[in-house]
Amino acid sequence: MAEFRYGPVELFLLGLEGERPDPQLLEELSHLVDGGVLRVLDFVVISKSESGDVSIVEIEDDSDEYAALDLVLSGITGEEDIAELAELVPAGGSAAVVALELLYARKLAGALAASGGVVLTSERIPAPVVNALVDVIEEAAAEEILEEAAEELTEDEELAEEK
User: Name one Pfam family in it (predicted).
Assistant: First the structure.
């Protein structure tokens, strides 16, 4: 099996309330790192003034606020990527560019490569979309169960009337 030093990496642009990430976000990322689910490779904060001026802060490993993230490859997110993502930040807003290595997928990627396979495509479905879809499916299933119960009740009533 091919052994990779790194697994798949996803680059996220996370819109922020205020100019800094909420401590709860950093805490959750830290828990995921501690749990071996992912590694935070890079973390960049982008702020855009109302006039459109952009400031970029590359978070370093030695920052106390971000130390728990254990940044592995600070600086891996390229300047071109950051500039492109900065265009998506609204005037007066801020965002974090976060490069996450998906540790759970590293061995899978190695096994796929060793077998001669390749990933042909990958698509992420955002959590709000998945949850809305599950709500619709569950609602439809509940309605179906109610309809079946109503049909059985009607059949039972008809049988009772025949007796």
Answer: DUF6325
Rounded to two decimals, the pTM is 0.74
User: Can you spell out the DSSP letters for 83-98?
Assistant: HHHHTTSPTT-EEEEE
Q: Which two tokens stand for residue 68?
A: 């728990």
Helix, coil or strand: residue 105? helix
Return d(Cα 115, Cα 39) in angstroms, integer: 26
Q: Cα–Cα distance between 61 and 41 in angstroms, integer?
A: 10
- The helices-and-strands tally (H runs, E runs) of the chain is 4, 4
Domain regions of the chain by residue span: 9-115, 125-163
pLDDT in tens, 21-45: 999 999 999 999 999 999 999 999 9
